[in-house]
Design goal:
alpha+beta; five-stranded antiparallel beta sheet; rod-shaped
Length: 135
């Protein structure tokens, strides 16, 4: 007989149940409660993966316990979340800065072309006025 009782919870997958809670003294449970889960000898340890949280599941077909790992959502006031938010904002500012630099370079090039066209127009006007004897 197992040492740990695991309460099972339905999921979207018919052969997979999420472990809702553990009871380490299954002898204290009623027969009705024992129908809501399984007895196991031990609970496997989850891997520690930074930024992930582990949830224990049970495969009813293979009768095996396994972990699924999900992205951990940090509270908005945690220092880790603050760093992530600041890094995201910094990346957005860098991208905007690059776009502005490109726009300034394009504007400067357009101004330079306008200046050249104005100089050519002035030179043409001076030549016309000179040939007509106005100057």
């Amino acid at each position: 007989m197992g040492n740990v009782f695991l309460f099972l919870e339905n999921t979207n997958e018919p052969n997979k149940k999420r472990i809702a809670s553990y009871v380490y003294v299954p002898e204290l449970l009623t027969d009705e409660e024992l129908k809501l889960g399984i007895l196991v000898d031990e609970v496997p340890q989850a891997e520690t993966i930074p930024g992930k949280r582990a949830e224990l599941f049970y495969n009813t077909d293979t009768q095996e316990l396994f972990y699924k790992y999900f992205d951990e959502v940090l509270p908005p006031t945690s220092s880790e979340q603050l760093i992530k938010d600041l890094q995201k904002e910094l990346n957005a500012v860098k991208a905007e800065n690059n776009e502005l630099k490109l726009a300034i370079a394009e504007s400067a090039e357009a101004q330079q072309q306008d200046k050249i066209q104005n100089q050519l127009a002035i030179a043409e006007l001076v030549e016309t006025l000179t040939t007509k004897g106005v100057l």
